[in-house]
Design goal:
The complex is a heterodimer of chains A (664) and B (155). By secondary structure, chain A is an alpha+beta fold. In chain A, strands 3, 4, 5, 6, 7 and 8 form a 6-stranded antiparallel sheet that branches. In chain A, strands 2-11-10-9 form a 4-stranded antiparallel sheet, covered by helices on one side. The radius of gyration of chain A is 27 Å and the shape is flat. In chain A, 52% of the residues are buried. Chain B is built from 4 helices and 7 strands, in the order H-E-H-E-E-E-E-E-E-H-H. Chain B is α+β, with helices and mostly antiparallel strands and 155 residues long. The termini of chain B are far apart. A 5-stranded mixed β-barrel of chain B has the order 2-4-5-7-6. The chains are: A alpha+beta (664), B alpha+beta (155). Chains A and B meet through helix 13, strand 1, helix 14, strand 2 and strand 8 of A and helix 1, strand 1 and helix 3 of B. Strand 1 of chain A pairs antiparallel with strand 1 of chain B, so a sheet runs across the interface.
Chain lengths: 664, 155
């Protein structure tokens, strides 16, 4: 009975979403205040009923209700409770419910935190999101209902959660990634509302910016968590594999990064409005594309859910309708909104434009590489795959160019900057960066390496130009503290995120070129050397977990005859499904990670294992944390919260907005 | 106004040049990095040149797995139930590698005519069959579902 309540609640949420998608939008069109004011309560209703739905599904997991097909496929009575609860997103149906619930959460946030935005605009935003939400729920009800029962004979026990998912990373990665992904729907809805109302102005950009920044920050964390999880769980020692399902979040992230920069330009200078709208649509399409690729089973990947073509067609339908409709609206409305401000060839506008072009090109080439095998198959009927070399060959040079410009952009000025001024400001920074790039890796590695020099020099280039910019801004104040206090949160946010890029750059560069790994077969007592470390296999002992059995090896790590750490990698077999799983052991450090994955025992008593030394790998995720922190800081800037002033401004704009609406 | 237009033109030129350069380089990089996919039957019939990097999809043949006792060398046959290809690999195999499981191997045929794999991929979801394996079985006319069901534990 209870699972049926979940489904009933889902149906109610669907009905409310459709009403939300209809009345407030029509109300905004007809200037009917009552219909517009329905938007907020309806949004709350959608959120509540989707919340009830997902809670009921979680309850079905907690109560081991194996008559529910989704529970029977993804849980087991011996599964630890934390994985039972999170197994809600352990498969296609439940994870899509989570996705939709996240969307309703964002909608509720818009309803609550948009008090200063005119009601007709809010009504349109929530209406667009309501339509989207309705389409998602319809998709669930039609093709992937998480509450489907197994009749007449439910199994006695469940098939268990995929053993690779029974991990902390699984608890945090999917919700964070989804939250970031879905957040871009809000920015999309703001763009559509702006197109619908004809109010594509600086105020619109100001309303959108915090949402774009927060979504971007969460998506950054979501991707980084995925990378970190793959690194320690999948046992390849890799933190990024250019997997077809890893790519769409990156595509979305790159569009999103372009978008937050372009929004800055639209807010401050009223420029590139059409471009900003297009980027909002592209970032949103990236998120839907990710869903499509994961759930249609069209591409081969470690992430892919068991496939069902009808789901693929349905999502393609949603993708086509929403993106196609948005682009059509864009084509109809966009030419009416012209940018009128000019700028010089050397100006902040140009640097932001360069940023946007590079990010969009990078994103598009990843898109091409991800979908090319599909297109190729459709045309020639041959199966191919595009390997990491392609993505590296494109992405790495583009990012190097981007980072070179990143050092210059923040120091340049709007409208016009003299080249001589930039050279005067930055020549010492460039020299210092180069020196740091040559000297620092040499101290650590005692050898010259072009790759290390490049990575460190570029990291230093960004970092020093940030220092230069801040010291410029502070120097004309009486005290340093007064100077630092006068800078806005969004300025600090920008610099923190840029510093994050520097840290990540150094991490990626050094870990890519200086990681070592080695697969060996060791008898108990035997040792092997890798870089400056020696690894001794001491012994292996059997272990028993709640739902698995396995072996654990003890490996002593030494450096210069000093003990560093004993690592305990495991090899497990999960009892319910019979799947084997390796649990690697990691000694994490600021400057390097050491880790070991255990293979299998030979008849001779020797164990096969792979040993890795990864310098600076933590810097990759540290960089991501800094970026997300920066994005959050920027979103918290007080100019987005200046309620009274904004309300007056909003009312003024509302009047002018009406006027432009009449003109349309 | 005129200089304004000139600037706009130079921006457009800049973007167009950048874009066409990027597209050209992208297509070049794409053409350099295509891994073609073959079925075991195609490989057995000698359609693959020595040294060419390819992918093969198929099932691990029951009873074909051998591993050396003193090294990480392994050997197994991948099959589409019509023809087999013997695969040599040195290293640790993925968790879900087992006989009867669909896998994809990446590598090349060496001078001695032996397929040396550089990577062995097995999927994390056992109910999910890789498109490449499915294509190989379909091409061989074997009913993939029947073989899959018989070779997998009840779930």
């Amino acid at each position: 009975m209870i699972p049926e309540l979940g489904q009933f609640s889902l149906i109610l949420a669907f009905c409310l979403s459709i009403i939300l998608g209809a009345f407030p939008i029509i109300g905004a069109h007809r200037n009917n205040l009552l219909w517009m004011s329905l938007a907020r309560p309806l949004t709350a209703g959608v959120f509540v009923f989707l919340g009830i739905s997902i809670l009921i599904l979680a309850y079905a997991f907690a109560a081991d209700d194996f008559s529910v097909q989704f529970v029977a496929q993804h849980s087991n009575s011996a599964l630890p409770t934390r994985y039972k609860l999170t197994a809600v997103w352990g498969g296609h149906e439940g994870s899509f419910l989570l996705w939709t619930f996240m969307l309703s959460g964002w909608m509720l946030a818009v309803a609550i935190f948009s008090k200063s935005v005119p009601i007709d605009f809010v009504a349109r935003v929530l209406g667009v999101l309501g339509l989207l939400c309705g389409a998602y729920i319809l998709f669930m009800l039609a093709t992937s209902n998480p509450f489907d029962r197994i009749v007449p004979l439910p199994p006695a026990d469940g098939a268990d959660l995929n053993s690779a998912l029974q991990d902390f990373g699984f608890i945090v990665h999917p919700p964070t990634l989804y939250m970031g992904y879905v957040g871009f729907s809000v920015v999309f809805a703001f763009a559509i509302a702006a197109l619908l109302s004809g109010r594509l102005d600086a105020a619109w950009a100001r309303w959108s910016r915090p949402w774009a920044n927060i979504s971007w920050a969460i998506l950054t964390i979501g991707i980084a968590l995925g990378s970190w999880w793959a690194y320690y769980e999948l046992g390849w020692g890799g933190w990024w594999a250019w997997d077809p399902v890893e790519n769409p979040p990156l595509i979305t992230w790159l569009f999103g990064t372009a978008l937050i920069h372009s929004l800055a330009m639209t807010e401050k200078r009223g420029m590139f409005k059409n471009w900003t709208v297009l980027l909002a649509i592209l970032a949103f399409s990236g998120s839907l594309l990710g869903t499509f690729i994961t759930r249609s089973g069209l591409l081969t990947s470690v992430h892919a859910f068991a496939s069902d073509p009808s789901r693929g067609f349905f999502i393609l339908g949603i993708l086509g309708l929403s993106v196609g409709g948005a682009l059509l609206l864009f084509a109809l409305r966009a030419p009416l909104m012209k940018s009128e401000f000019g700028f010089d060839l050397v100006s902040r506008e140009i640097f932001l434009l360069v940023n946007n072009v590079i990010l969009v090109v990078a994103s598009a080439s990843i898109f091409l590489g991800t979908l090319f095998p599909m297109v190729y198959q459709a045309v020639t009927d041959d199966l191919i795959s595009i390997g990491p070399p392609y993505f590296n060959a494109i992405f790495v040079p583009l990012m190097i160019i981007l980072v070179l410009f990143l050092g210059v952009g923040p120091l340049s000025r709007w409208k016009r900057t003299s080249t001589a001024y930039l050279i005067q400001q930055l020549s010492k920074v460039a020299m210092a960066g180069l020196v740091v790039g040559v000297v620092l890796p040499f101290i650590f590695l005692l050898e010259f390496s072009l790759a290390a020099t490049l990575a460190v020099a570029l990291g230093a280039w960004i970092t020093l130009s940030i220092v230069k910019d801040i010291s410029n801004k502070v120097s004309n104040k009486i005290t340093i503290w007064q100077g630092l206090g006068s800078l806005s949160l969004s300025y600090y946010g920008m610099q923190a995120a840029h510093f994050g890029i520097a840290v990540m750059f150094v991490g990626v560069g050094l870990t890519s070129y200086f990681s070592s790994e080695k697969s060996v077969l060791l008898q108990p007592g035997q040792s092997t050397e890798l870089d400056a470390y020696s690894f001794t296999f001491m012994q292996s002992t059997p272990v028993t977990g709640p739902n698995y059995i396995g072996d654990e090896a003890q490996i002593m790590v030494r450096r210069n005859d000093a003990d560093i750490e004993i690592l305990y990698p495991q090899r497990r077999v999960y009892l319910a499904s019979g799947t084997p799983s390796t649990e690697m052991a990691i000694d994490a450090g600021f400057l390097r990670d050491l880790f070991v994955t255990l293979g299998e025992e030979k008849e001779s008593g020797a164990w096969s294992m792979t040993i890795y030394v990864k310098p600076f790998v933590r810097w990759i995720w540290l960089g991501a944390i800094l970026m997300a922190f920066g994005g959050t800081l920027a979103a918290g800037d007080k100019r987005y919260r200046r309620l009274r002033q904004r309300r007056i401004a909003a009312e003024n704009e509302q009047i002018s907005g009406r006027f432009s609406f009449i003109k349309l | 106004m005129k200089s304004h237009r000139k600037e706009r033109l130079s921006i457009i030129l800049f973007i167009t040049t950048g874009l066409s350069l990027a597209i050209g380089l992208t297509l070049f990089a794409l053409s350099q990095n295509i891994d073609l996919f073959y079925t075991p039957t195609q490989v057995a019939q000698g359609e693959v040149e020595t040294g060419q990097r390819i992918r093969i999809g198929g099932m691990v043949k029951d009873g074909s797995f051998r591993s050396a006792n003193d090294s990480l060398q392994v050997q197994f046959a991948t099959t589409d139930y019509i023809n087999d290809v013997t695969i040599h690999y040195e290293g640790l195999l993925p968790d879900l590698f087992r006989e009867g499981q669909g896998i994809v191997v990446e590598g090349a045929i060496d001078e001695l005519g032996v397929f040396q794999a550089s990577r062995v991929l097995a999927k994390h979801d056992e109910n999910y069959m890789s498109q490449e394996v499915k294509a190989a079985l379909d091409a061989a006319g074997a009913s993939a579902e029947n073989h899959l069901l018989s070779s997998q534990p009840e779930t």
